[in-house]
What does this fold into?
Amino acid sequence: MNQVLPTTRSYRGQSQEQRRAERRSRLIAGAIDVYGERGYHQATVKAVCEAAGLTERYFYESFANSEALLIDCYNAVTYAVLGEILRAGEAAGHDEVARSRAMLHAYFAALQREPRSARVFLVEIRGVSRAVDQAFDASLRHIGREVAQLLAPGMVGDALLQAGVIGGVIQIALRWIEDGYEPPIDSAVDAALRLGTAMAQTPCARKPS
It folds into this structure.
């Protein structure tokens, strides 16, 4: 006897899984807008769903709670920006200074271009809960490894130095945003480049034995 396999019902050419993934993406995009405008603590599930053009029942189809959505928003923004940074570095050639400058410019340009995403990326993620803090820490560790592999072999394997460089650049970005994206972006890039260069050239910036 031939086994009858279950079929996936489609609607307008999309499977149920595709429609669910699309709704999830809309909720993430809507939440980034809402969190970036109001702040995470002032946002409600209803406001996020209205921004996504969905009813609240679809929220719980994809997310257990608002913290889970915040983590996914943060990761979506973070890894999109990281992709831009790495592509800029690869396109800049092999000169270390030129590559560093290109990567930093891509980072600051992304923050300036998408201020609401920048708020999620740098401000709203902090101090919400232990689970959110762990997601934030995991992303910074990943970013540190990726940047070190592309830019500074001496930092590979030195997680503490990576954390110092990434944390320092984030603090420069926070001050720059707080001051209304002033001074001009090249000045912010120069400040971050000087910091990263100074830290990477200290005696601690050594290749792992």
Summary: DSSP finds nine helices and two strands in the chain.
